[in-house]
């Protein structure tokens, strides 16, 4: 009965925690909306403490009492973590400046709670294995232990490790981007495109020359590795970063040009510096390269003369419509008349 009660209290906390986080993150100032959720959270903390205190005064220590106590301590820990994160978000909501370390503090609090919950899950698995082997073994208990090992141990460890890897990768990408401070930061005269707040102390510059808060961009990189403005890759190699096109947050665009790309090609040459033979409609080569050009050019002209076109292809090559034979015959007949 006590195990069922603690399971129900865990379920209630699973429903109250998202509501509590939503109210704190949305910066709702109405006390009437915060009070019911806070009251439920306090009750979820007090009831397990009272239950554990009562059971320890009326029963001797055994595997059953140990399991109930572990569930109660785990529930109290979850409530403390939820209220701590709630308090951090509320402090950030009442603050007038951007709290860049908020995401770090929330991650540290949740990670500490998840690690302790994982340890409790391992302890509970050991307690169940001991009970099944030496006290009361049954197929139902074995199935419950397998479910507990999968959901509360394996999945929790897998999700925690995935979060840690994603966070470390995002921090590595952020640290690879140049940081803008001082006079350069004041000359931006723009806001972060993610949170729409001004740059107070620093900003990170992406390879496509867009400015963001480091905290905002790191949260974005948890989801995808592209710029929120132009969808170019944020973490690129040095060579690609030097030649990448750039723009500011207002939509301006500029493409990098080196010396070879900036100089226009000379007359009679294409963009690769090779001579170009201008072909006249009758197939002869015109310009200075027709008479005194290199031998390879004469062969190119002869090859162009040897190409046969039908009427449709000839009209397409010259940018005009194909000449119809009936129209020519009509003109010839009218001339003879």
UniProtKB/TrEMBL annotation:
Which regions are flagged for Low complexity bias? 254-268
Top-level taxon of origin: Eukaryota
Q: Which UniProt keywords apply?
A: Membrane, Metal-binding, Signal, Transmembrane, Transmembrane helix, Zinc, Zinc-finger
Compositionally biased spans, kind Acidic residues: 299-314, 323-337
User: What is the membrane topology noted in the UniProt record heading this document?
Assistant: Multi-pass membrane protein
Signal peptide: which range, if any?
A: 1-16
Q: Where is the composition biased (Gly residues)?
A: 284-295
Instruction: Name the Pfam families for this protein.
Output: TRC8_N, zf-RING_2
Keyword Heme (UniProt) = no
- In residue numbers, the region (Disordered) covers 247-337
Does the keyword Zinc belong to this entry? yes
Q: Which residues form the RING-type domain?
A: 192-231
List localization entries: Membrane
According to the record, the segments passing through the membrane are 35-56, 63-89, 115-134
Name under which the protein is recorded: RING-type domain-containing protein
Q: Which organism is it from?
A: Ataeniobius toweri
